[in-house]
Each structure stands twice: as structure tokens, then as C-alpha cells.
Amino acid sequence: MTKNVAVLMGGWSAEREVSLLSGRDCANALEEAGYRVTLIDVPRDPVRLIAALTPRPDVVFNALHGRGGEDGCIQGLLEMLRLPYTHSGLLASALAMDKPQAKRVFAAAGIPCAEGRVVSKAAYLAEGSPIAKPYVMKPPNEGSSVGVRVIKNGSTPNFTEESWPYGEEVLIERYVPGREITVAVMGDRALGVTEIRPRQGFYDYRAKYTEGEAVHLCPAPLPKPVYDEAMNLALRAHQALGCRGVSRADLRYDDTKGEPGQLYMLEVNTQPGMTPLSLVPEIAQACGISFAELVSWMVENARCDS
After folding, report:
1. Going edge to edge, which strands form the sheet with 169-174?
2. Burial annotation 128-159 (CB, 10 A radius, 16+ → b, else e)
3. pLDDT at 144 (0 to 100)
4. What is the DSSP string of 95-128?
5. Domains of the chain in sequence order
6. CA-based, 20 to 30 A from 187: which of 20, 165, 200, 284?
7. What is the mean pLDDT of the chain?
8. pTM score, whole prediction
């Protein structure tokens, strides 16, 4: 019997537009693979969402990004409804989305991270950064580089009450020079490594979602021991958080003092972008896995946590 798959997309986070793209592309690929698909633009009201999930689908494909869809909230509701869903479960989703907590998990697993501290917005406004320049400011629980600022030597952050709408806390991390690296993980294996080279600046929200603003080198032109270690760290991070399904690990590779350099884990994305041109599908394609095959695998491996 053909499975009926409900694709959750949209939502109310800062990444709503990206999620709509992911959802529609995943839905098209699933229909191509022979599934019956229902698209749901997720409302914030759980009663309305439950109504939209009636009649009951066989599987939920979670194509949401950011708060509400990636942080354990939707996962908790789907657990209560006993609806199998794609990507990571409640706990892994919540841990990965909370960057300071994820860093603690990585440190306990022996995964190198850039040192950082969480400060209140009020403390930063009064005292400045507890870390010397250059450093990175980021919201503790946003994705897609939303709100991320790189403060380099000689620059002054434009930071005010009004310019920081991401809550009362700021994560400050030491800036790691070098190269932007990302690794796709599918189930119990790392698929491959891509290097990202933004045309200008760093790999911010605009560079991620504007065609031509960044070059993807897949496979990444890294020395084999470094390539293999990036794969190893991504899989270890996926497992340490308790992720399942597909995830993407973002790292920095500091080779500014020559080879071998040092890899640093930045974060794990439990709901990575899922358009055919996104990083995870691009890496999967390089491994011979088509976009339709990738999303079909995700549906067939969907489940609840308990």
C-alpha cells in the first residue's frame, strides 16, 4: 500500500521561507517516488495542526527549520500523537538547537569546539565581550546563521537593544580563521565533506540562500587525514547528541599556520536544508544517492523515539 506522507513546512520561525522551499521540493520528490503527499503549512496553534493531520498520515516528513520545528516542540507533539516522523527526535533536536548545551555535549565526547561563553544582552551592552577580538556573536538557539555577526580586529559591533531581537542571551565564541567545512550524515554513516567558499564575507544567511553567493567544493579539497577526521567528528557529534535520520555538521578548519591544521565543530543541524541544491542533497548526489532516493530513505526510516 502506498504510504501517505504529510510534509510539514513553513512555520513561524525566521527560516519560514527556506522551510517552504524545502517542503515543496521534498514533496515533489516524494510524489515522484510514488508516495501520496499532503502539504501542511504549519500553524502555531497545535489544535489547528492536529486538525490538519486528519485523516491521519502514515508518516510525517518534517521540513521545518528553526524555532518550533527544529527544537523539539513539533517532535514532542508528534510523539504524543504517535506519528512516525523524519529527522531527529525530541531530545536530540532540543540539544542540537541549544548551541551552548550542544557544545557541552561535544566537549564531553572529546570533540574540539571553539571556546565560548554565554552572556546576557544587558551584560554585553554594559561591559562588552568577555572574549578578545576577533570573535563571533550568535543567538544561542537560531539556525541558518540568523543573527550571526563576526567582529574582527578594528571593527565595532552595532549592538543595541533594538538590533538584537533574538532573546536575552548572546553566545560569544572565539573566531576560528580558515575554511568552512560541512559534512552530511545519513543514519550511521558520514556521506562526505564539502568546503564552502563565500564570494565575500562569511557564510551568512544571504550567502546560504542567494544563488551565486558561495561556491561549494564537493568533495572538499582537504588532505585525506583531515577529510577522514571531519567525517569522523561529524558522525561522533551526530551520535553524541542522539540524532537519527539525516543531519549536517558544520566545522571550521584552521590551516592558517600550515598543514596539518585543526578542525573545530561549530554545530549540528538536525533539520538541514532539503532542496535539490542544498548541501546534504548535494553531498548525497556525489555518493550516487538521488534526491528522490534520499527523501524516500528518510520516510522509510521515520519513527517515534519511544
Report:
1. 116-120, 169-174, 135-138, 149-151
2. ebebeeebbbbbbbbbbbbbbbbbeeeeebeb
3. 57
4. HHHSHHHHHHHHHHTT--B--EEEEEHHHHHHH-
5. 4-87 (3.40.50.20), 96-112+177-270 (3.30.470.20), 116-174 (3.30.1490)
6. 20
7. 93
8. 0.93
